[in-house]
Design a protein that fits this description.
heterodimer; A: mainly alpha; two-stranded antiparallel sheet; 9 helices; 2 strands; 79% helix; flat; B: 260 residues; alpha/beta; 4-stranded antiparallel β-sheet; 8 helices; 37% helix; disordered C terminus
Chain lengths: 256, 260
């Protein structure tokens, strides 16, 4: 405890000061009938809503999980194929270049009409947000495999495409793929909130934010906002711990 | 016996044709240490890549023991100028890569890889990753990795080009020791006359582009050679003269190069 304070003293003080300033100024930030909820109000919301929050978080993570899993399953094989085989690149590139600039949220009407107000529908929006960052980074990773490593492998008897991809190109591209997944997770989390606000289910963090807004409970809205932040932070840290730490064993420097 | 027969290589580019090699004819004897030297851009690397099977000649053929070389094969190991170790594999796994591709069992892979790791004197780094090693050590591992496949021919493309002069002298000594122990045919490209004279049985001097064989010089001196001895310097002077002429031709200059 003492050593933690010594190490993170500045960070802890900074957080505490921010909370105090928030608490003291909140009553003065008003507009019409609304007053900015203070720290204690939000804390109270957390306590009163805790049970439902867990369900909401689980729903949101379900949407996130469906989208990310589908995104990874589609983007990595496609990125590998496009990065390694020129023909596949030429077949898919024009299609992707047209679809990619469409913001994922623009797909919401389509998802609702054709898939309905279901978890799959929310997952689809998340998928559209997640798939392109992973695809592009996988592709880049494969393009950037140093030629000398491929040739070294060939001279050592690794000459089939399958072996070259599995033993050389893929391991070499893993840092790029990891970066793609991290970027995708950020976009995906944004898409979760947006998709849920359109009411694809009656639970979920995004849904509850708009729900409590309509009931004029800004303290609850803020509690859910903070929950969103905490979960994203946790996912990012967990990913860092599981994947990036393992990578840095052979790769000097931290993956972006 | 490695035979290079009438090999020519022309590169097609948008700006036209570049003739890299013209009519190379050469016989390399078994267990010979052969060095290639020539002005930069004379096609040394191209020739080595053709022997490796990484590039195809425009005309002519290369035979190893009577068989035409068409594609890369573990019977011809190669050490590259750039660092070519797989950064995600430990040193021992790098050396075992070729054996893994051959489908050898795990114990056998480890046993052989350890043997070659010891041969290059780096057993302390078995579990290290390439980034933890210095440039010279990485090239020694690359040599061990090529040798672990037990190739008939070892192709080396300026392997010590990017290490400092002290390390370079040390690595040359190490290479000779390893060569004496394993007795492979070695084709070694270098920019350094000093290196060529210290290492080679024969030195092939290539001309400025298009690369042709200008002269083959036999270095009939006992090893280990003394870098500063009179005999070594006689050969060095001869090579300096030849290379000076070629360098001047390559630049289109007519400077008289006396050698020393």
């Amino acid at each position: 405890m003492i050593s933690a304070i010594r190490r993170y003293g500045v960070e802890i003080t900074s957080l505490c000061v921010a909370v105090v300033i928030w608490q003291l100024t909140a009553p003065y930030v008003t507009r019409g009938d609304f007053t900015l909820p203070g720290f204690t109000d939000v804390l109270a919301s957390f306590f009163s809503l805790w049970d439902v929050m867990i369900t909401d978080a689980a729903t949101s993570l379900l949407h996130f999980g469906i989208g990310m899993a589908a995104g990874i399953c589609v983007a990595i094989p496609l990125g590998v194929g496009m990065g390694w085989f020129r023909v596949i690149d030429r077949i898919f590139d024009p299609i992707i270049e047209i679809l990619r600039p469409i913001p994922p949220l623009a797909w919401i009407p389509f998802a609702i009409v054709f898939i309905g107000l279901t978890h799959t529908s929310a997952g689809t929006i998340v998928f559209i947000g997640a798939v392109f960052p992973i695809l592009l980074n996988t592709y880049q990773g494969f393009r950037n495999v140093p030629k000398v490593l491929i040739e070294a492998a060939m001279v050592l008897g690794c000459t089939r495409n399958y072996d070259l991809i599995r033993k050389v190109a893929f391991p070499s591209a893993i840092p790029d793929i990891a970066t793609g997944i991290r970027v995708a997770m950020g976009v995906a989390w944004m898409c979760v909130v947006a998709a849920e606000m359109f009411g694809v289910s009656t639970t979920g963090i995004g849904y509850k934010i708009s729900h409590w807004m309509h009931l004029y409970r800004m303290d609850h809205v803020m509690a859910y906002m903070l929950l969103l932040g905490f979960i994203a932070l946790f996912i990012n840290r967990a990913f860092r711990f599981l994947i990036v730490e393992r990578l840095s064993r052979w790769r000097k420097g931290v993956v972006a | 016996m490695l035979t290079i027969a009438n090999v020519s290589r022309v590169f097609e580019s948008e700006s036209g044709q570049v003739e890299a090699l013209r009519n190379i004819n050469l016989e390399v004897f078994d267990k010979e240490f052969l060095c290639f030297i020539g002005p930069s851009g004379c096609g040394k690397t191209t020739l080595l890549r053709i022997v490796a099977g990484l590039d195809q000649p425009t005309s002519g053929e290369v035979f190893l023991e009577g068989k035409t070389i068409k594609s890369p094969d573990p019977e011809r190991g190669m050490v590259f100028q750039e660092y070519s170790l797989f950064p995600w594999r430990t040193i021992i796994d790098n050396i075992a890569f070729g054996l893994e591709m051959k489908g050898e069992s795990k114990e056998k892979r480890r046993r052989i890889a350890l043997k070659y790791l010891e041969l290059v004197g780096l057993e302390a780094f078995e579990r290290s990753y390439p980034y933890e090693l210095s440039g010279g050590m990485r090239q020694r591992v690359a040599i061990a990795r090529a040798l672990a496949n037990d190739p008939k021919v070892l192709l080396m493309d300026e392997p010590f080009g990017s290490v400092d002069a002290q390390t370079r002298n040390f690595l040359q000594g190490e290479l000779l020791r390893i060569w004496c122990e394993t007795r492979k045919t070695v084709l070694f490209i270098t920019h350094s006359i000093d290196e060529a004279v210290y290492l080679a049985d024969r030195v092939v001097v290539l001309s400025a582009r298009p690369g042709q064989i200008r002269e083959i010089i036999k270095v009939d001196l006992e090893r280990p050679r003394l870098r500063t001895s009179v005999e070594v310097n006689v050969v060095r002077e001869r090579l300096l003269g030849l290379l000076g002429e070629e360098q001047a031709r390559g630049c289109g200059e007519t400077v008289c190069w006396t050698g020393i």
